[in-house]
Amino acid sequence: PNTRLRVLLDMDGVLADFEGGFLKKYRERYPNEPYISLEERRGFWVSTQYGELRADLCDKAISIWESKNFFMELEPLPGSVEAVKEMAKMKNTDVFICTSPIKHYAHCPYEKYAWVERHLGPDFLEKVILTRDKTIVSGDILVDDKPDILGPGQLAIIERNVNSALYQKILRQNVWSSVHKSNRDWIMQQDSDQKHESVEPNPSWEHVLFTACHNKHLPVSTTQRRLLSWADNWRDILEGKC
Ligand code: BVP
Q: Which of 137, 192, 209, 241 is most deeply buried (CB count within 10 A of its CB)?
């Protein structure tokens, strides 16, 4: 029997400062456009909130993370590198980095590997899992700042249809499970031509929500545990699983 603990760590928003890196480069590139401060961020999708601010800002936001060196130059979040290195040395513990690349693949996948090599060392390249569907990856714990972790359908739809009123509503509220079933079916149907795998309805991992500027206002669920930052007691979270 496998008695080892398998921890999956998200990259953007957990190890690397996607939100801070985005805002810095957006303001440099579009100094005369309005922006959303990190305090005002709501909802996982940066592009959605910028699109609500002004329709054309959605594409401007996307242009930032589709640019060369965006992912490469993200700063590590405070304490993340030290915590991962320490976690990886713990006995009976296997640590993987589980991250969803954007579909504009010119730079992102390469730069994610380069980031891991630079900040965590070449041995950690073995531990990188790039997937658009985290539900089909098995593990004991997934530490992720995205409140609702679904398969590839939702991500693909949002990238293709960022302005649909229904998606806007769902994303603003982060309430996929409370969306009426007929609407959920419709959304998944919209994506059926692009979908290669179905979403695993019952992932093996427990999702531990990593606190980020966009999710800190969400009500604390009684079932979901949170890791407030890397200064929070991540060892206790792991021990709860041993
Ligand atoms: O690669 C990141 C950035 C991208 O989605 C991926 C999320 O990966 P995980 O953190 O779940 O592993 N991304 C894309 C958009 C909009 C696309 Br249109 C966004 O607003 N925020 C975002 O993170």
A: 209
Nearest to 172 by CA among 162, 160, 180: 162
Distance CA 236, CA 3 (A): 18
Closest CA to 149 of 176, 109, 168: 176
Question: What residue spans of 11-164 are helical by DSSP H?
Answer: 18-29, 46-53, 57-65, 80-89, 108-120, 152-160
| d(CA 119, ligand 1 centre) in Å | 21
ipTM over 0.85: yes
- Condensed to tens digits (0 to 9), the pLDDT of residues 83-124 reads 999 999 999 999 999 999 999 999 999 999 999 999 999 999
Q: Which helix (H) or strand (E) holds 98?
A: strand 93-99
47 DSSP β-pair partners = none
With contact defined as beta carbons under 8 Å apart, do 36 and 30 qualify? no
What is the number of the ligand 1 atom nearest to the C-alpha of 71? 1
Beta carbon of 15 within 6 Å of any ligand 1 atom = no
